[in-house]
Amino acid sequence: MFEHTTAPFGAFTKHKFFDATSGNGFTIVPAVGGTMLDLWLDHRPIISGCQTPEELENNQAYKSSLLFPFPNRLDHGKYKHLNDYYQFEMNDSGTQNALHGLGRDVVMDVLKTECNDDSAWISLSYFDHGSDKAYPFPFLVDTEFRISNKNGFELKIRFTNEAEHTIPVGLGWHPYFKLDTAVDRLQLSLPPCEMVEIDERMLPTGNHLAYEYFSKKRPIGKAVLDNAFLLKTSEGKAYVHLSDQDYSLSYWQETGPGKYPYLQVYTPPSRDTIAIEPMTCNIDAFNNGDGLVTLGPEEFLEAKCGVMLTQGLKES
Prior knowledge:
The protein is mostly beta strands and 316 residues long. The chain has a single domain (2-311), classed as Beta-galactosidase, Chain A, domain 5 (Distorted Sandwich). 3% of the residues lie in helices and 50% in strands. A nine-stranded antiparallel β-sheet has the order 11-12-13-14-28-24-23-18-21, with no helix packed on it. A hairpin with a 3-residue loop joins strand 13 (139-148) and strand 14. The longest helix has 5 residues, at 53-57. The radius of gyration is 19 Å and the shape is globular.
C-alpha cells in the first residue's frame, strides 16, 4: 500500500509517496519547481537529487528540474517572436547562452494526491501571468507524477497557452540517473537516432550525424557525452537502457511530432550519474525552429516519459 507523507525541507515542504513492500516511491518539493529529490524502484535509489534545502535552492545542475518554456540552450538568450525581440538571462557563462528556461524555481500548487494498493500520484499546477519580460506570455503548466508497482514511474507535463496570440514552446525534464555501479562500468544503449552536430558554444550547426556507437548495449567506458540526439522513432515510445550486473533501468519517452522527438544525454565530470533528458525540440529551437511548437490561444503541448527497473541484464 502506498502512503503519502509530508515533512519540512528547510523553508519548504517535501511530499513523499512510498510503498514499503515494493520499495517503489518518490519525493518532490512542489514549491521549488516540482523538483524531485528521490526516486526509488525495488528499494533502490535511481536518481541523484538535491540532498539539502541549500542545494535545492542553488540547483545549478538542474537536478530533476522541469524545463519550460524551452529546454537546453538559447543562443545568447535572444529570440524573436511576432516581430518583437526578447532576452533571457545568459545563465550559462561558459557558452554565453541562456539555459533551461524558467521552470526550476517556480512555486507549483498541489491540485490532488492519491494513494492506493498499487499506485500513487500527485498533480501540480503553475500559472504564469506573463510577468517575466523574457517570456511575457500567460501560460499554464500542469504536471502529474505517478508511481506504479506494475509500470514504474511516469511524468506527464502539459503546457497551455493562455495568451491571446501564438507563443513558442519547448518542454523537457532533467533527471540524473544512477545505479550502484560507476558510470564507466554501466552498459548503455540508445534508440535509433542521429547526433545533433554542435559548435564550440554547444549550439547546433544545422547538421545531423549518423550515430551507432550505442545502438547496441555496450559499456560506457571513458565516453564523454553532452549531446542532443534526434530520434528516428516517429511515434510510440523510444527506450534508453542502462544496466549493471544486477539490474536494467529502462527509460522511455513518447516520441514523434508534438511529443519528445529529441533526447539529450550528459555524463557529468563526476562520472557517478548520467542525465537522460527528453526534449520536445532541439537546442536553440526558439531561433532555428527545429521541433519548435507554436501554440495558438488555449492550445496545449503534452508529453510523457518514465522509467522502469528490472532485475538481470536485458538485451535492447
